[in-house]
Every structure is written in C-alpha cells, then in structure tokens.
Amino acid sequence: MQEKIIILDFGSQYTQLIARRVRELNTYCEIKPYNKFPHEDKGIIGVILSGSPYSVNDPEALQCDLSQIRGRYPLLGICYGAQYLAHTNGGKVASNGSREYGKAELVWHDDSDPLMHGVSDNSVVWMSHGDSITHTPESFVNVGSTADVKNAAYRIDGELTWGVQFHPEVYHSQDGKIVLSNFVTEICHSRQDWTPASFIESTVNELRAKLGDDKVVLALSGGVDSTVAAVLLNKAIGKNLTCIFVDNGLLRYKEFESVLANYADMGLNVLGIDARDHFYEALKGVTEPEKKRKVIGKGFIDIFDREAHKLKDIKWLAQGTIYPDVIESLSITGMVIKSHHNVGGLPEKMNLKLVEPLRLLFKDEVRRVGRELGITPQLIGRHPFPGPGLGVRILGEVTPEKVRILQEADHFFIQGLIDNNLYDQVWQAGAILLPIRSVGVMGDERTYENVIALRAVNSTDGMTATWSHLPFDFLGSVSNEIINKVRGVNRVVYDISSKPPSTIEWE
Ligand code: XMP
User: Fold this and answer.
1) Contacts of 208 (CB under 8 A, 6+ apart)
2) How far apart, in Å, are the Cα atoms of 477 and each of 280, 416, 474?
3) Which of 14, 24, 183, 373 is deepest in the core (most CB within 10 A)?
4) Positive or negative CA dihedral for 113, 7, 369, 468?
5) Is 50 close to ligand 1, i.e. is its CB under 6 Å away?
6) With a 6 A CB cut-off, is 428 part of the ligand 1 pocket?
7) How many CA atoms lie within 13 A of 345 on its CB side?
8) Known catalytic residues?
C-alpha cells in the first residue's frame, strides 16, 4: 500500500514547499484542505498542519477536528499548526506577544528529542509570525526557544505530536531539512520508497485497473507534461491510447516534423494533424492579443474535437495536468477558483471522462519520471512554450509570411543557445516579431524591413523572471546570423525587461 503523509492546508504560502520537502525524502504526501482529512485512507503514516494567514484568535480562524488525528498518527504542527494545537488545548496564543520575521537562532533544550537529532545548537531558523504561544498546557514539553520566543518548539507528552513555531520547510532554516527528515523517517517511519520507478509502477497498475479496455485520447503539445502523460498511458494501455498532435501553424521551425518523429520513436500512437490553414484563416484580421488567444484556443478545441470524433468508442480524455495546477484550482475551502489551462472546456464539450496521471506530481518530479521512462534529455529539458505558440510572439496580425520570418529567426537564436551551451542556463528564450519596420542598409541598398526582438529570462516558475545576461559576443553573432540569413529582417534588439513589471511573452 502507498504510504503517505497528509498535509492539512490552513492557507500558508509555504504549504506547497512542505510537500516538496517531504517528497524530496522519497516519501509520498498529499495536501488536503484543513477540514478535509481523508479518514478512510489506510496508508497514512503521519500528518502535518501548515501555517496560515489567520491568527488562531481571529473569529474567522480556520478550525479542524483533530480528535481523530491526534494520538492516532504522528503529528507535526508548523507555525499556525503549532499555535492551533496549543490554543485548542488550553494554551494561550497572544497576538500582542513577540513577533518575529526572518532569521532567529534556536536553542534546543532536549538533545534526546527525536525531532532534533543531528540539529546543531543555535541553529538558524526562519520565523514568520505575528502571534506567539505565551502559555502552554501542562502536557506540552518545551524543547526549543529563540531569544524572543520561549515556546519555539514543543512536544506533547505521551503522544507523537510536535509543534514548531519556525518554518523548517524554507531554505533559510539551516537545519530545517533535518527536522523534517527526523519527523518523516524517525517518527513516522517512512519506508522512503517513493521514487520515480515506484511511481511509474503504481501508476501504470492504477491506470490499467481504471481504464480496462477503454479507449483514451490525449492532446500532445510537444512539451514535457503531455509527453510524460502519454508515455505512461502507453505503458499501461498501449494502442488503446491515441494521441493527437495539431500543427496550428504557430509551432517552432520544423517542430511538427521533429516532434512527430520523436513520438514515433517512443512507440506512441500519434495522429499528426496539419491544421495550419484553419488557424491562419481564423486569425485573419485579428490583432488584439486576448482575441488572438481566444481564436487560437477555440481553433484547437474545434480541431481536436473534430479529429477525436473520427475515432471510435473513445471514453476518456487524458491530460497532462500537474500538481500546481490542481492546488491552484482549489481554494482552502475546496472550491474551484481557476479552471485548467489550455484545454479547459474540452471534457464537458466532448462528454468524456477525464484521466490525469500526473495530477499529483510537481514539475521537477514529472521530469524525473520522464527520465526514468527513457524520454530523451532534449525533450525533458525543453524550455516552456506557450499554448498559443508563436501567435503571441507575432505582434499584431498573424500571417504565414510573418510566421516564416519568426520561425527562422527563432531557430537561429535557439540553435545558437544550444551550440554555445547557454540553452540550459536560461529558463525560457524566444524571438518576437515586432509590428514595425526600420531603415537599414545592405550592400549599397537602402532597406526598410522587420525588427526582431530576442527575449531570454531566468526564472524558477515563470511567476517572476529576470532578463538573462547573455554574453554580448553571443548576442552579436546571433544578430548577424539572423540579419544575414532571414529574408525580411534588418534589425535585432534584445529585451532587457524583468517580470514584473514586464511579462515574459510580449502579448
Ligand atoms: P507571461 O507572459 O505571463 O508568461 O509572463 C509566463 C509563462 O507562461 C507562459 N504562457 C503561456 N502558457 N498558455 C500557456 O500554456 C498561454 O496562454 C500562455 N501565456 C504565457 C509563458 O510562455 C511563460 O512561460
């Protein structure tokens, strides 16, 4: 049975980070809304209570029933979680007590406490709290303090319950990893057997049981998530999976052909649909960015729907949805607040059941699973590419000729990054075709042609980004190559804007 740790989410910005740290310990975990503990689940080996933007003293503070959890599973309360445990047991949490934001030094009082094994004294920990526990019930044993907060860490006598005021999950907590590791391995006794290989084995078995002989259709994008989802499903149900890869005319240079060839090598059953004309027709005269996205999104749904209907007896639609999308879709009260990205609306329209084999994985875990499945490093390490493709990098109206110019310019940029070992040093890169012309001179002739902007950014999740400091010599040679080889371009500029305030894509 799959062992797991349940993280009850009280709305902290760090909840996802706790999950990542636990998974880094090769231990599977799931984040659940604070009041949705999965009591029927048999594999639970421990529970973590997250932090929260609320104070336990707020009238609207989030409450959960711990009576079925405490004493039954090892329990670790972090920040609000620790305060909540104290508050609901007759302790006192004072909103006017000591506040601490940032680094503090923790002094341990009990070296034999299993949560603290291997943690250095005066270890730097990260604090972020306005409240503090000023009085603990009798059964609470104080095991650590900082200069300002006496009850910075405690355990409850007679049970496997701990509370820590600091955030062991954040990078700045020097020995935070050790504290979490102690909880997961020494207290919850995790077998630490959650690995890409074990994920693949259990997921393939689950998919077989769930899908039986049913037929499944999946939209491939050429990106990591949909590819890994497809390879997993292929392993589970083979030819009952049909993948559809649509050429919307907005892919990169020769991408349709090369990605299709790659998929064929992987043994996937893929239909490549050339729908370029459909998209170019629909995009005629469309200049407004949001309208463009809508037209491209609708074009995709129409083509996919049309092609999927030609297939017989399809029962399921597979998607490469990953964990951050799922978590973002749930508020802590369990309400859907944001629908899934590029194929939103498809399952309802097509009346298909949804299967999402990656819905519990983080992006880096998807990559690890992909590697384990034997997918090529080039594909696993590909930069993100937006669903609407070059459509949002051709400013103004999209025409086949503009697509040709941008594909070629982008190709020289990306190939240059690869050839100079810079590709993996930037998070995302691409060329943009600007809706202006400028004067130039080539040979003895005056030219009046297009301007290409190059964009390369460093980021971890695309939410914020800084422009990449690519070497000037490299930028110079790419600029030369583009101007010399791409017909219709006589000027190249480099985008030196960070996000915020500028977005990564120009439209
Ligand atoms: P922005 O431009 O918002 O982009 O800074 C952040 C990241 O999201 C990608 N992006 C998209 N991805 N569909 C997608 O699948 C879209 O409509 C879309 N718009 C932006 C962008 O490439 C970057 O990685």
Assistant:
1) 236, 237
2) 32, 9, 5
3) 183
4) negative
5) no
6) yes
7) 10
8) 79, 167, 169
